[in-house]
UniProtKB/TrEMBL annotation:
Recorded GO MF terms: FMN binding; pyridoxamine phosphate oxidase activity
Chain ranges of the Pyridoxamine 5'-phosphate oxidase N-terminal domain: 60-105
Cofactor(s) needed: FMN
Function text: Catalyzes the oxidation of either pyridoxine 5'-phosphate (PNP) or pyridoxamine 5'-phosphate (PMP) into pyridoxal 5'-phosphate (PLP).
Family: Belongs to the pyridoxamine 5'-phosphate oxidase family.
Keywords for the protein's UniProt record, in alphabetical order: Flavoprotein, FMN, Oxidoreductase
Lineage, uppermost ranks: Eukaryota, Metazoa, Spiralia, Lophotrochozoa, Platyhelminthes
Protein name as annotated: pyridoxal 5'-phosphate synthase
Species in which this protein is naturally found: Macrostomum lignano
Pathway(s) it belongs to: Cofactor metabolism; pyridoxal 5'-phosphate salvage; pyridoxal 5'-phosphate from pyridoxamine 5'-phosphate: step 1/1; Cofactor metabolism; pyridoxal 5'-phosphate salvage; pyridoxal 5'-phosphate from pyridoxine 5'-phosphate: step 1/1
Length: 106
């Protein structure tokens, strides 16, 4: 596949590497959603994911999540948390407040 580079340069045209991953009929159309509430949509997705994980007999917990933050000087950090609840105001998760990740989140 030609990505637009040339033999006289190490430059690769990264913008030309993009290709469609979905057919037009597979693209999310917000007008066709059952709800416009992001929390209701998330709940439907979570319920479906939980059912699939259960049917597979997977040891994974569907409420596992990754949260990335950055310090004031821009140093990124990623930690894994357990989602413990949600409502129309947001998501609630468990972490150890005495750990490094807990202190970074405060």
């Amino acid at each position: 596949m030609d990505y637009g580079g040339n033999s006289g340069s190490d430059r690769v045209a990264l913008e030309k590497m993009r290709r469609p991953y979905l057919e037009k009929h597979q693209v999310l159309d917000s007008s066709k959603l059952e709800s416009q509430s992001p929390f209701e949509l998330w709940k439907a997705w979570f319920d479906q994911a939980s059912q699939v994980i259960s049917e597979m007999g997977s040891p994974n917990e569907p409420n596992q999540m990754a949260l990335a933050t950055a310090t004031r000087d821009g140093r990124p950090s990623l930690r894994y948390l357990l989602l413990k609840g949600h409502d129309e105001t947001g998501f609630y998760f468990y972490t150890n407040y005495n750990s490094r990740k807990g202190k970074e989140l405060v």
